[in-house]
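Example record

The entry below shows one chain as it appears in the dataset: sequence first, then structure tokens.
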Amino acid sequence: MNGSVLIQGLWRATSRSLFTALTLVAIVQAAQAAGDPVVMTREGSVQGTTERGVDVFRGIPYAAPPVGELRWLPARPVRPWTGLRPALDFGPACPQRIVADLTENSDQVQSENCLTLNVWTPDVAGPKRPVMVWIHGGALAIGSDRNTWYDGARLAARGNLLVVTIQYRLGLLGFLDLSRIGGSEYAQSGNLGILDEIAALRWVRKNIAAFGGDPDNVTVFGESAGGASVAVLLATPLARGLFNKGIIESMSPQLGEPREPQSESARALMEAAGVHTIKGLRGLSVGRLFAAERKAVAAHRDAGDFTTKIDHVLLNANALKLIEEGKLAHVPVIIGTNLDEMNFFDTIEDFRQREKPRALLSKQLVGAFGRQRAADIEKAYFSDEKGSYGDEVIALNSGIFFRIPSIRLAEASSASQPTWMYLFTYRSTSTYRPYASSHAMELPFVFDNLEAQDAIAFTGRAPDRKRLSEQIQDAWIAFARAGNPNAPGLPRWPRYDPHSRATMEFGEVTHVVDDPLRERRRVFNDLAFNGTSPAPKQYAPLMFANGGGSTRLASK
């Protein structure tokens, strides 16, 4: 960074004395002389490092720590700092339960002081580059940007663009609705995690130019609950003008539900914790909060489920319903799913869908969709004698929980804005578990972190992995640059519409297919999947081997 520009920025951004400012300039210049990248943000200067040909800044706070009296309140601006702040290490993960086989790597490092983000940039100087902001998945209950799968170095370098990964409050600290208990002060408590994402996007808007990014060319992308977050950001007026494009990968059905069930969850938590006021809740340690949550879930299973709320501030209705009505940010969108989404969950206790008795499945289908449609569904999914029953159960639930809601979103989006649809069909060759084209399988390909050992355990070592990674990266990069995923070396990718339903299949052979799995789509033709028809609670038992009512979905 040019010294005179740095001094001007310091002078504008702070009210420090000239002596302090000059001292800081000397510190900055010393860091620069050592080869370390330094950026002056609106809140203070940060020192990063250079790795794999790009500059990286980790653990930058974008909001004040939501602790003490700020627990369960919307994010507040971060307090400016003096001196040069090291931005070398990831911030701690937001507090969460540790869930075997679902927890992000490194999520054992946790703190409520977790509202941080990371930036990978080819260079802090030069022409402004496109920006991609990543929102991790995890059922709004687990996950963090500490995960090695989300390292943005290779994507930033290949695309000559900036990658930003963000953290947001999770579970009972990010989505517990206390509005009926705490009144107007806590009116937005049930959507704090999404409000955190919006606060991070505001930080990007204000600061990303200093890192070499273009604040007027921002793409938000996310997977699972992160994909649902992108859909909510499309639908809420609170995020207007903060991003220019969206990529929604394997969106979970957490798009906005009425407050009442979540208010009951709050009361169950307080009862389990033995407190009667929000002040009492605030006085509990995170450990005691999670202990109370476990007790509440044992008595009321849904007390452990979290979703966005229809609070008439962030959302006036389910996000998909709003998008169907044309009430959305009119920006280009890519939407897609993986072929065998539910395979990811099938080895987890409670799920094990392949073990569901056929008679129970038939009964649950009738309960969720009515007798005639249930018969049509069974014909569409189970009439092929060559297919195994277990595989078809996975296919059915992958359609109900991920693919059909994503198709409904693509249909609604394509009526208002440029929309593209994909289907990821790469089948894992892992020797660890038979993941096939499961939920989250595309993630190591999008970020090209295929050689991480835990990624290899997930994807296997198929020789065509690198080729596929380059193809999906090039499409995402082209989209981030110009709002169109067509890129050299890829088949022409037409926009999605409800007639041809052109879909890019990323897999062993990457090509465009019109209306893939047509008959399995048609059987749900007139169901909206917008949180009302059908309601998630209505079809949730299908997810479990022996019934159950939880809608918890989690992923990398």
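Notes for this example: Residues 329-543 form a domain with the Rossmann fold fold (CATH 3.40.50.1820). Residues 1-15, 551-556 have pLDDT under 50 and may be disordered.
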